[in-house]
Amino acid sequence: MISFIAKRLAQSLLVMAIVSAVSFSLFNFVGDPVNNMVGQDATREQRLEIRDKLGLDDPIITQYSRFVGNMLKAEFGLSYRIKRPVDDLIAERLPATLELVFVSAVISLFFGIILGIYTGIKRNSWISRVILSTSLAGVSLPTFVIGIGLIYLFAVHLRWLPSSGRSGVVALGWWKTSLITLEGWRSIILPAITLSLFQLTLILRLVRAEMMEVMRTDFIKFARARGLSERAINFRHALRNTLVPVITIIGLNIGGLVAFSVVTETVFQWPGTGLMFIQAVNFVDVPIMAAYLVFVALLFVIINLIVDILYFVVDPRIRLGG
Amino acid sequence: MLLEIDGLNIAFPTRRGIVNAAKSVSLSVRAGEVLGLVGESGAGKSTIGNAIIDLLEAPGRVTAGSIRFMGEELRTMDADQMRDVRGKRIGMIFQDPQTSLNPLMTIGAQLVETIEKSTKLRGRGAYDHAVALLEQVGITEAVARLRAYPHQFSGGMRQRVVIALALAGDPDLIIADEPTTALDVSIQAQILDLIKSLCRERNLGVIIVTHDIGVIANIADRVAVMYNGEIVETGDVAQVLGAPKHVYTQSLIAAVPRADTKLDRFTSVDYIEGNTASFRRIDIQNHWLGKSQRHDHTGDAIEVSNLNLSFVLQKAMLKRNRRMLKAVSDVNFTVQKGETFGLVGESGSGKSTVARLIAGLYKPDSGQVHVFGKDINQNRKAPESRAARQALQMIFQDPYSSLNARMRVLDIVAEPIRFYRLTDSEQETRTIVGDLLEHVGLGAAAALKYPHEFSGGQRQRISIARALASRPRILICDEPTSALDVSVQATILNLLKDLQQELGLTMLFISHDLPVIRQMCDRVAIMRHGEICEVAEIDAFFEAPQHSYSKHLLDLMPDMNLLTAPTSKV
Description:
The structure holds two protein chains of two kinds. Chain A contains 13 helices and two strands; from the N terminus they run H-H-H-H-H-H-H-E-E-H-H-H-H-H-H.
């Protein structure tokens, strides 16, 4: 197992090296940063001075190794627009995004698995049909339409929940959370549902398909023939076998939640890294874009590593060899 | 009576109307008795087993009759009562031990769960009982094995675990649905002995559902023969197998290959085939198919020398960490022109790998394969090598997966002709395909259909037609009939024999079934762990085997002395 993880770690490092090269290349391809930093009326001397300060005249290799060196120290330089260190900006915004992703992951996993099991076992009941046809909407409607629809219904029409922003924030050390106040929950619930809906549908349909597959296997029939209760068959025997393939997709999807949060955060003006990224794109704020890219890639790599380790925990055939 | 079934009807409503899987079936089992329920696929024998414990697959249901178990009517029980019968009073054993156990739970967890469900034992008591059960079914070091997962057991061991699970609730009746079909002969004998001895010790009633007359002859006390949903004959095993009364039973028993004497042909089974439409036999020697080819074939048909092949089980950077499986180890033999050479062994012995090496599907690590004197692995692009491959065709075991489901039979059979450009026109190709299909007993009309419209035996005929289409001189048959029923097996083997005589083919015939080998082959090689133990003339092998493993294999053959002596009713 240790050699397996070591191999995976080496692969992850390779991925990160490629991503860092891509994000570094942003600096050279997305226009001249100096133009974006100084006013129209800046003199040539001022421009040269900034160029020099940013090290833009050094050879590419030097610039890249400096970039990687700084990346390892989690330093991504100054934001062109806000003129503050990018790592500080990300650290400030990160709790908002992570909490949003966490809440929507819990929602989509919880409801996705429960409803998937239900519709997999009672495939012909009318409740299953309703769930399945509703879930189609979850896949086919784009996230921003769902978000705007929810805002219209709950914030504008019913006036139960705030339409945007993140309120009720409490600082726990450097981590600013909105999950311990009622106000915070009121503001996170709509964006979290919006973000989770697509993943929820996907997990639901996957669990349902796997469940139906597993229910047809011989060992379920044999468990029935031994007189085990339906509950033991469904949850102890069937569910765990369902989870092996589901874990892969779930792992990738949590990464997807981070990626999709860009749209959701924009719709709900959620002050997370996604919103920051969109703003950075608008102003060609390359350091933020580069840092965000590296950050999302790192998240994907970590999640995939966790998924691989989870296989070992769930499936003895991988853990113990054939 | 432990179990009495009376007038049972089972119906499966389908789109084309109701299919009656069982028609007024009546059966009874006493305690301490093994009842064999024998029949071919589709006869409805498994359906009866499932109906007893109310596990019929939807949309099947029992429409009439009674199932009385120890005086109680099972049909009127509700779901909860039925769950108490399952496991506690009636145990079930399924065919495939590879899939009967939950792969993610330890054997111990599955046993303890079942014991706690069906007895009053809890915790420590249940655990101790699990250990005792494993020991009873002949698993040593039971305490350590309880912590193991199903994939860490061999097939035979898994079937023992399945039996332990079926016994966990201390049932009075065991229904075993093809319990040994997925196992090797040597394991099969052990499992049957185990079931028999458990039956005697615990005074259990046992129903063995099987298609295998050999299993019935070995284990059953009484036997019921099923055909097309009906029980056609019931009685003492010696009486039914020795002096069958019903025509179906007679033809079924006649179709079982014999190991004791070699017959010219397999007894034909008109009753079962039912299909009397005779197809045009073509004069194949003077037909395109029998015409000699450009390449003259001299010397031995196949010569295999010092063949070696290993598979990598576990990859590793360092050579010493790699785990290799020696699938074929220093194999030598020669197949002479026109003979049928048998290759026998249990699963994993490497017999199919040898076939694939000869067909050029695998490349050997070392050693040579010569087909009519040409090394097939030397310069595979050369015309001689191509001709050697054309002269050698293969028929595979599974008629379901060896035909492309998206291609019409015409295209399947014509593919080798088109590939080797053997004809001048498409019209000629179609005529030849038609003739071929007639000759293998399918009729030219079959050309426009798709494989799924055919039964297993008919599909195997398509495979044979395809193999013949390139005008081969050598046929490699890899277990060509082991997926088929006995009656179908007899007709397919007869067809192969006829074709071999008409065309003067050389055959390499791979099988695990010794009686079939005796009927088909002139010489035989016995394989074990990738090595050849013995090569012998067929009669010499059966009468005086030299190698200890050969003797062992012959000892394991089911005793067919109960069966009626073969009459040459051709």
